Amino acid sequence: MKRRTIFFDACFLVLLVYTVQAQKSHRRHAPIRTSKVQQLQDQTTTSQRLDCFPEAAYPNSGFSEQACLARNCLFDAANSSGRPQCYLPPNYGYELQSAENRENGMRLYLKKTDKVQSPFPIDVIENVILDVEYYSDQILRFKLYDKDKQRYEVPIPLNPPSSSKIQNPSYEFTYSSNSSNDNLLSFFVKRRSTGQALFDTSLGGLILSDQFLQIVTRLQSPHVYGFGENNHDTLKHQVKDSPSWGLFAASYGTNTKTNTNHYGTHPFYLVMEQNSSTSQPTGNMHGVLFLNSNAMDYTFSPTPSLTLRTIGGVLDFFVFMGPEPEEVVKQYTWLVGRPMLPPYWGLGFQLSRWDYGNITHLKNVVQRNLDKGIPLDVQYSDIDYMDADKDFTVDPKDFVGLKEYYDWLHSKGLHTIIILDPGVIDDQLHYQPTITGMKEDVFIKWDDGSGRPIKGSCWPGDVYFPDFFLNRTKQWWTRWITDFHAVNLTFDGLWIDMNEPSLFNTNEPFPWNWQDTGSNYTLKCPVNKYDDPPYLTKAVYRYNEENQRPSRLSDHTMCMSPHQGENGIYRHYDVHRSVFSSLPTEISSGISIQYFYLRSLYGWSQTKPTLDALRSITKKRGIVLPRSTYVGSGQWAGHWLGDNEATWHELKRSLIGMVEMNWFGIPYVVTDSGATEVDVYIPSADWYNFYNGRHITQNQQTIRVSAHLDTIPLFLRGGYIIPTQEGANNTKYSREKPFGLTIVLNSQGEFFCTWKGLT
C-alpha cells in the first residue's frame, strides 16, 4: 500500500450509467437434440468459436460440461486447439423485423431468435432497437437497447451531433440477414474510400439481457491499441494470444501482476488498418468508443476479433473514421471534451513520495534537490501530512509549521499539491466535515429505506463516502476545501486518491490496518443481483485467481446496490467509475438509478467539483490530479497513473500508460535497456534533427538514433512551427526567458500556422 519516491515530468493526460428491470422471459425451450448439436458443431469452425464460459479458466468458476450445457451452449469434450471448449451456438442472435430511414441515419427493429435459448436466460431482452446516427462526416454512432423498457445510459455530456444533413460521410452502414443461419442480422460499418469493414458483426454472438450484454466484431487488422486502464506490457495488444482484460475501476496498483484492471475506465480502442491482400498497414486508423460504465471485459481472438461484454446499460458505440491517427484523437476529444490546459508551472518537474515522516525530512529532501541543481517545480504532500489520515487536517506533531513552509516554497517559485481522499472518518462528535456532512445529508446511503450512510474501512478507519452526484455534496466539498486553504495550507493543486472508490477488505473479517486505526470493522455487502450478478466479468475472476477464493463485485470497494444522485437516480452498480460539468436533466428529474450502474463514474463525479473549488480559491487555472478517471475527465483534470515501484519494468509500464492516456497523440516510444543507439521508424514526411538541422529525406523510413544519457533524441516535422524556450531549474525562472519560434518548412517550402493571437 506504500507509495515509492517518484520524479516525473508532468505529462498532463488527455483522458479523455437508469436501469429498469427488463421483463422476465418465461419462454421454455426444448433441449437441443443430439443430431442438432452435431450439426451446429459442424457449422462452427474452431477458429470462429465464441466463448460461452469466459470464466472457465479461473478458480471457483464452476466450469464443467454440465455447467456449459446449462448455459444452452455447445461443449467439445475432445477440444485440444486452445480455442473455447464451451461455445455459443452459431444460430443465436437477433432477426430483423423492420427498418426505417431517418434524415441522419436509420432505425432497425430486431427480435431475438426463438431457435436457441440465451446463455443468461434471466430477463432476456427480446425486442431490440438498433439506432444508427450519422453524427458527423467522420463520426458514426450506433446503439442497441431495449424497445420495451427504459435502461440506464451513461450520463456524461457529449458534443451534440450535426443539426444539418450529413452530406459527405466517410463511412457506410450496411446490414444483412443470413438466410443460411436462421436469418440472423449482421451489420457493418465500412470505410467508403476502401470498402473495408471496420466493425463487422458477422461472427454472431449478439446477446442482450438485463445483466449480460455482449457484442462481437471482426477486427480489420490485429494492430489494436487502447483500452484502459489495465496492466498490459505492450502498447499494441497481443491479439493472437487471445487475451482477456477487465475494465472496472479498482484499487489495484501497476505493480501487481499482468491482467489486472485498475484505477480508470476508458473503453476506447484504435485500430491501424491494413491492406486486405498484403496485410501491410495502410496508414489509416479508426477508433471506437464503447460508451458504457458498468463492469465489463474484452477478449481478442486470432481471427482477429474482439468480444465486448458488460453487465448493465446499453450497447452504445461511436466509430471515429480518422483516417490519420491524430484525426481519430481529435474526433474523439471533440465528442467527449477537449483536454484542459495546465498552468505553465504544471509542465515542470515534480516530486512526490509517501511517508516523508515529518516536516524536517520533507525540508531536507527539497533542499537537497535545490542544492544539487535538480529542477523542481512542484512539491507534493501525501496523506502523512494529515492528522491520523483525516482530510482537512494537518498533523499537529510531525508537521508543525507546514503552512509557513508552503509560504517559503512559494517565495522560491515552487508550487504545492496536496492529497485528498473522498472518504471521511466516522467521528460524529469531533470531526466537523462528518458532523456537517451528516446534517446536510451528503453521504451515500443503504438502499433499505433506513437512511443510514454506508460505512467502510479506509486509511483513517471507518469512513463514509460523499455522493458527488448531489448538488449539496458539491457545495459541502467546496466549502471544506475553501476553509482548509484559507486556514491551514495555501496549496496550488489537488491530488485525489482512493476515488474508485477504494475501501479496505470489504466482505472480509477485518481490515488490514485495524491495528493502526483501532477498528476491526469492515463493510459486508448483502447478497443480491448487483453485488453478485450472474456474470462477474474478468475483473472479478481476476481477483479469484489472486486470492484463491470466490470474489464479489464489491470486494475492495462499496456495495453495488445503493442509489445515488438527486432522489436516488443512479445505482452505484452503474456509476462506480464517473463527474459532471453540470447535472444532466435526467439527474434532476428524480428517476431512481443504483450505484451498481455508477461505479466507474465515482471518480469522474468528484473531479469537476474539486476543480471548481480550487479555481474559486486561487482564481487561477490550477491542477486536479485524480487516480480514477472516465471518458471525458480530461477536460477538467489530468490522471495519476497510481502507485508504482522504482523498477525498470514499472518505468516501461508507465510509458505505455502515458501514451494510452494521451490517446496516441504522441509518437510511439520503445526503450531498450542499456542501449545508446536504436533503429527508429519515422512516418513519411520531411524531418529535421532539432540539434543540427540535418534533413532526413522522405524515403528514409528507418533511421539509427543515438540516445546518450545527456541527449534526448528530438526531430521536427517539416511544415510546422515549434515554440521553444531555454530551460531553467524552475518555471519561475524559465518564464523570465524569451520564447522563440522554430519554423520548419516542408519539401514545398510551406508551413502550417493558425494565428488566433496570444494572451
Automatic annotation (TrEMBL):
Protein name: P-type domain-containing protein
Family matches, as SUPFAM superfamilies: (Trans)glycosidases (SSF51445), Galactose mutarotase-like (SSF74650), Glycosyl hydrolase domain (SSF51011), Trefoil (SSF57492)
Record-annotated P-type domain positions: 38-90
Residues annotated as signal peptide: 1-22
UniProt key word 4Fe-4S: no
Family: Belongs to the glycosyl hydrolase 31 family.
Source domain of life: Eukaryota
Gene Ontology biological-process entries: carbohydrate metabolic process
Cell compartments where the protein resides: Membrane
CC annotations in GO: membrane
Residue ranges the record marks as coiled coil: none
GO molecular function: alpha-glucosidase activity; carbohydrate binding
Keyword Transcription attributed: no
InterPro entries: Gal_mutarotase_sf_dom, GH, Glyco_hydro_31_AS, Glyco_hydro_31_TIM, Glyco_hydro_b, P_trefoil_dom, P_trefoil_dom_sf
Keyword set, alphabetical order: Disulfide bond, Glycoprotein, Glycosidase, Hydrolase, Membrane, Signal
CDD domains: GH31_N
